[in-house]
Structures are given as C-alpha cells and as structure tokens.
Amino acid sequence: MKRIPITRDSDRCSACILSDICLPIGMSRQDVALLDEFVQERVRISKGKVLFGLGDTVEAIYGLRSGAMKTQLQDAGGQVQITGFVLPGEIIGMDGMGNTTHVSQAVALEDSEVCVVRVEDIDQISPSLPVLQQQFRRLMGMEINRSHQMVMTLGTLRSEQRVATFLLNISSRLATLGYSSRNFILRMSREEIGNYLGLTLETVSRLFSRFARENLIYIKQRDVTILDKEALQELAGVSCD
Amino acid sequence: MKRIPITRDSDRCSACILSDICLPIGMSRQDVALLDEFVQERVRISKGKVLFGLGDTVEAIYGLRSGAMKTQLQDAGGQVQITGFVLPGEIIGMDGMGNTTHVSQAVALEDSEVCVVRVEDIDQISPSLPVLQQQFRRLMGMEINRSHQMVMTLGTLRSEQRVATFLLNISSRLATLGYSSRNFILRMSREEIGNYLGLTLETVSRLFSRFARENLIYIKQRDVTILDKEALQELAGVSCD
DNA sequence: CGCCTCTTTGATAAAAGTCAATCAGGGTGG
DNA sequence: CCACCCTGATTGACTTTTATCAAAGAGGCG
After folding, report:
1. How much helix, strand and coil, in percent to the nearest 5, is found in chain A?
2. What's the pLDDT tens digit per position in A122-159?
3. Domains and CATH numbers, chain A
4. Do B152 and A83 touch (CB under 8 A)?
5. Rounded to a whole number, what is the distance in Å from the CA of B97 to chain A's nearest CA?
6. Residues of B with CB below 8 A from A121's CB?
7. The overall pTM is greater than 0.70
C-alpha cells in the first residue's frame, strides 16, 4: 500500500475524467473545485491486498481511481459475505462512518488506486461549504439504496434472476465508465460471485453455462460477451438497476 | 396522517426518554439541546397507512416516537421486499437522502407517531454546527451497516438461522427500549417476517412451531416468549447483532 | 354468531447445495 | 521452451432445503 501525495493539477478532482461519476457527481463546476481541497492523497493497493480491514481505525473514505475492489463483512465464525464489487468512480468506506473502527474490509481484486478523502478534513473544511455536506448525504443515501437493492435481490430473486441481474449490473456500470457494455472481463472468481449473490460457485457456473447454451451470452472463463441483452433483462425480471 | 406542532418543552429531544437511542445517540447534553431546533413537528400515522410512498418528494427524515413501522421497496412488477422493521427510537427515511423522491415506502404496522426532521432545516441550520453534521454521517453509516448485516443474513444463513436471528434481534432491540427481552408481541404477520427474511410464510410458521417443540420459545400467534436464549444464539450461528 | 384473515400443518415438487471427478489456463522452474 | 503444478472452472450424480399447493384450525371483529 503506497501513499502518493497529489500535487499536479491534472490529478485533481476538477480535472478527473471520473468527475461525473465519482464524488463530484451532480455538483457544479465551481463546487467541484472546492472538492480539490479535500483530496490530497492517493493510495496504490496491489491485487489481493486490503485497503482497510476489520478493526482498523476509520480515517477516510476512498474513491476508486483505477482497478477493481470488493468489500466484505466477516462474522465471528469467519464466514464472509461480499457486500459489493467496486468499479472506478465508485466510493469505498462509507459504512465506516457509523463507527470509529471498520467492521468491513476492502480488498483489491486487481492492482488498484484510490483517492483519499480524510474524515477529519471533511469536518474541518466543510462547515463553510454546505454544498459538500449535501453531497456527502447524497452519496451515503445512494449507498443505502444500493444495499437495499441488494437485499431485494437476495430476498426475492431466484438464482437465474440473480445471475442475470449481476451480469446486467456490471455491464451497465462499465458502460457508464465508457467501456463496452457488451464485452468485458470479470475481475472476480465464480466463488466470489456466488458469495455475493448468496449462491454456490457451482450454481453460478452452471447458470453461466446455461445462459451460454441458450445464446444469451458468450462466456469463456472470465471473458463475457452479452449476446441477448433483452432476453437477459426478461429473465432478470425488471430490476436490473 | 395528522401533523402536530411541537411547542411544549416536554416534547423536545432534550427531554425525550428515547434520547439515548434516537437521533441524539452519543451526543452530549448541550449538543442535544441544539437538536431541539430541528424537530418542530410530529406526525401521527394510523395502522396500515403510509408515512411516505414511492415517488413522494423527500422532505425529511423521521424518528419513530411510538408504535411500529416497516420500510419496503417495490419493483416495477409490484414485487415487494421489506427492508426493515422500525421500533421506537429508530430512524426512518435515510435512504431518501440519495434522491429527490422516495424509492421506498414506510408503512405503519400499528398506530404510530414520528418526529419530523426537515431536510431543508438540516441544510440551513447545521453549517454552523459541525457536531450535527457528524451525527448525521454517523446515523447514515449505521444504517448502511444495518443493511449490510441484512445482506449477510440473506446471503449466508439458512432458514432456521435467519428466523432465530430475527427473534434475537427483535428481543435485543426491545431490551434497549426498556421492554422485556424475554416476552413480546410481534407487530408483523408471518408473511411480513417471511418477506423480510427471504422465506415463505409457511417456512417461518414451521420454524416457529419447531422452536416451540424444542422448547426454545413459547409462541402463540404473535405472542412470543424466549425460553432458551443460549440455544437460539447457538442456532443463529454467532451474528445476532 | 358468522365471516374473514392469519396461522398451522401436511403432502409433494422444485430449487439449490454438496460431493466428487475432470478439465482448462497460467505461471514457474528445470 | 516445455512439462508440470496449482488454482479456478465445469459438469455430473445425488441430497437437502425450501417452496408450492391445499386443507383445516384459531382469533378477532362487526
């Protein structure tokens, strides 16, 4: 985990290509300039390493700049539940705001880089900038919605619907990032997908194979191509957020 | 839905018996006094009525003063997922902060009363009160944790563990309120419990019956007594938050 | 008292998990 | 450069869990 101070203007939020997805989402050009004050540092995390782990002091929230990560809970028995896969432009660590130490961990699925927003900086600087307060509330509210949506997926959908929803969700988030929504590489294993979706890795694998057999997708290992988006959406029900 | 302005000092946060559970949790005596400014109104909702519904403008967050409510999502196909049961002292509507209109609804399980904290008031008053900003961040962070915990329950636990966890969770929250943790009345139907836990009402009913047969609980309709808390905890795994 | 809703219980079916045996790819060291 | 090994993925056979369908019972309220 390597810390890198942000000094060049080209590295700031106001100049970032992710600025209409990440922390600055929905903010005016001028307001984004204020955000630059908050983000003074980046951190590099190599594949498999943790950004923060259970019991670590909550110091900051993080915007994923590049790479891919997962966030997960772990109970006393060691049982793990992945609560999210994080793509560039998405925020990590908002669940820490409720405590002084982390109850979850964030792990890099591949070599990644995050921008750091220190909590103490938020407290110090933002009283004079109500727009940033609203922004944090909005982002946290979105995180609650995401999690509720996940509860709905786990509570109401059958395995094939969960897997279809998962593929469509990844696809649409990649599209937002400007990547192809049709063809992409999964950054996580079948086991991680299964854990996330409340299924076993075998069930996930079987459904991928079935979708391929039915010409809904092409899949070879982690290389996915969506061949029939409409049919997948049909299968997913409606909610493919 | 009846609005009631708060005028008497005895109705304010600083005098409320729920003050160490509700919005003021963890705040100093002086800081709670500041909260009084925010809470100018209460609303009464009778059983079965909604506090806010899908598409309603997000105007406020609410602290449940008395009664019991549920919050739920509803997808385009009409499929419902209950995301939480709300007891007195708990906060409703934090998921609205991510949007301008509600994507969830809050329904009264029995005649209830909530205290209203208007979002515009938060924006107006709080810039000068950083402690309240922190408080809202903390509360929203707790809400994210709650929801993640629910994801874990749905993703990793088997039906008997989910039901045991549910009973222990309700029991411990009632204990926090000063009620008996041993004996209580469920305010929701078997169907609502099943929906919440991602199970059918029959499965919930069968497990209640089985727990009763094994002398872990006494249950008659909605009247529950926990007879063997340790055994239930054992059954639940560990996480009984 | 009777109706209506909620709950319980049983029989059966469907979904998903478990266990186990390959199979494929990627990386490493000879 | 190639063979080998190790991890991750696929597929099959079988079991367990949970849902579905159906019927009967209990309580509450007009």
Report:
1. 40, 25, 30
2. 888 777 788 888 899 999 999 999 999 999 999 999 99
3. 2-130 (2.60.120.10), 157-236 (1.10.10.10)
4. yes
5. 5
6. none
7. yes
